[in-house]
Design brief:
Elements (H helix, E strand, L loop, with lengths): L1 H21 L15 H5 L2 H29 L3 H6 L1 E5 L6 H15 L9 H13 L10 H6 L1 E5 L2
Antiparallel strand pairs: 1-2
Helix pairs in contact: 1-3, 3-5, 5-6
Amino acid sequence: TTLIAIPIVLPTIGDLVREIDANSDRLDPNSPAYDPDYLTTLFDGQFFASLALVAVVSLAISAAYWIIAIGRFGRTVGGLAVGVRAIDVNGALPGYGRATVRWAVPASTNLLGFIPFVGFVGALLQLLIYLWMLWDPQRQGLHDKAAGTYVILAR
């Protein structure tokens, strides 16, 4: 998803850098053109709209990849490489419903990243979701528990 985001974000960041460079005197407190509110005017609706677009596109691509891969095949490309597969309690493929829940639990923690000074909480929660399997008797992460799935070796 990062590769998709680059062409969307780079022009906006480039415009922002050129704007700041052209008006650097407005940032210098010793300059007669100094404007203490200058930086706040740069981050207008267009800048945040570009970031929101990147977030939505990234979320959609992530959802499509994980839900289709897990729901239809029981594994992602990474799971295929290491020889693991997700199954439901009956040993069958999880299906799209369980795959959606399995994806949504960790993905939902990314939303905290949009709240200033709280994004690290989302990262810690996501870490907890995956590390949970280390002390769980069924060796399930919290996303597996929510979806009713298990990960098995499947070479």
